Amino acid sequence: MFDYIKGVLVNKSFPYCTVECGNIGYLLLVNQRTLNNIGNIDEEIKIYTKLIHKEDNMTLCGFKNREDRVIFDILTSVSGIGTKVAFALLDEFETSELINAVIEENHRLISKTKGVGAKMAQKIVLELKDKLIKANTATEIISSKIQNTKISNETITQAQTILQSLGYNQNEYEKALETALKKLEKDDAQELLKEVLQLLSIF
Question: Considering the entire predicted model, what is its pTM?
Answer without folding.
Answer: 0.75
